[in-house]
Amino acid sequence: MADRNKASLVAQQVQRWWPRITLIALILLGIYIIFGREGGIIRVLELKSENDQLNTEISRLQSEKAELEQQIQLLEEKDATVIEEEARRMGMQKPGETVLRIQYETVDDSADVMQKD
């Protein structure tokens, strides 16, 4: 009978401690999932944010690339004289050319009137 009482007492203690042990195990498992191997969920969220930023940058660069390709196509379609005019406007010159820049002076009209008197 003493063995039965001991067994019954051990069974009661196990029943009393089992929920606590389970709860502690679940808490430890949760901590491992959040902070555990390779950063856990926090690292996953950081990587997702970085991935979203990179995808946004990729979209922006693809749009910029499309615009530049369109500009290239327009320039390739233009007449050679239009391209040359644009190059001149930008200050470019052909090999062997010398560029002369002419500066104009402004003349004060009131000075001419006074000299005539």
Structural class: mainly alpha
- C-alpha Rg (nearest Å): 42 Å
Q: Distance between the terminal alpha carbons, to the nearest Å? A: 145 Å
Low-pLDDT runs: none
Give the helix level as a range of percent. Answer: over 70%
Q: What does the overall shape look like?
A: rod-shaped
Number of strands: 0
Q: What integer is the average pLDDT?
A: 80
Name the helix and strand elements from N-terminus to C-terminus, one letter apiece: HHHH
Q: Determine the strand fraction and express it as a percent band.
A: under 5%
Number of helices: 4
Major pleated sheet: none
Using brief descriptors, characterize the structure shown:
117 residues, mainly alpha, 4 helices
Short summary of the structure?
This protein is mainly alpha-helical. The chain has helices at 2-35, 40-77, 80-89, 109-116. The protein is rod-shaped.
Q: How is this structure best described in words?
A:
By secondary structure, the chain is mostly helical. The model has no long low-confidence stretch (mean pLDDT 80). The protein is built from four helices and no strands. The longest helix has 38 residues, at 40-77. The chain has helices at 2-35, 40-77, 80-89, 109-116.
